[in-house]
TrEMBL record:
Coiled coil: none annotated. The keyword Transcription applies. Residues 101-153 form the RNA polymerase sigma factor 70 region 4 type domain. It comes from the Bacteria. It comes from Nocardioides nanhaiensis. This is SigE family RNA polymerase sigma factor. Keywords: DNA-binding, Sigma factor, Transcription, Transcription regulation. Residues 17-77 form the RNA polymerase sigma-70 region domain. Gene3D superfamilies: 1.10.1740.10, Winged helix-like DNA-binding domain superfamily/Winged helix DNA-binding domain. Belongs to the sigma-70 factor family. ECF subfamily. The keyword Transcription applies. CDD domains: Sigma70_r4.
Length: 168
């Protein structure tokens, strides 16, 4: 194994779980997320010499987001499901597992683009400018998608108001 292969393998082992967490949040589907991560790792491996000294993780995230967008465009499964009162989490909203379930349900009600914006802005903690670059849109689009997504999240899961209160 040469130096490039070793360096890539080391990097991939270190970052694979973080990329998988991001992909699961983007897709809401563990199996699709695993496929996306493999595609992203293959794309990074193919360009490793150029990316090694730069930002391979940023490139991998970009691959995750763009391939996920391509997938939902192809399948047109942008059916936004409204969460009715019977499906809302009724248990103690301070319990971590209940909050996670409520958040997962609320995220499922977003369009894929809104979900990508929320994940990149608030989970990956990327600034608007970088989110715009990853998604290939303007910063204004990121702002408007963020605003719409947060409004939808607040409506779908009022029990998460304390989490969403400071987000803009």
């Amino acid at each position: 194994m040469d130096h490039d292969e070793e360096a890539f393998t080391r990097w991939a082992r270190e970052r694979q779980l973080a990329l998988l967490r991001t992909a699961v949040l983007l897709t809401g589907d563990r199996h699709r997320a695993e496929d996306l991560v493999q595609e992203a790792l293959a794309a990074v491996a193919a360009r490793w010499r150029r990316l090694e000294s730069g930002h391979p993780e940023a490139y991998a995230r970009q691959v995750l987001v763009r391939r996920n967008i391509s997938w939902w465009r192809k399948h047109r499964r942008e059916v936004v499901r409204e969460v009715d009162d019977a499906e809302r989490v009724t248990r103690d909203p301070t319990a971590a597992s209940d909050r996670r379930l409520a958040l997962d349900r609320a995220l499922a009600g977003l369009t894929p683009k809104q979900r990508a914006v929320v994940v990149l802005r608030f989970y990956e903690d990327l600034p608007e400018r970088e989110v715009a670059e990853v998604l290939g849109v303007s910063a204004g689009t990121v702002k408007s998608q963020t605003h719409a997504a947060l409004g939808r999240l607040r409506a779908a899961a009022p029990e998460l108001a304390d989490l969403l209160g400071d987000l803009r």
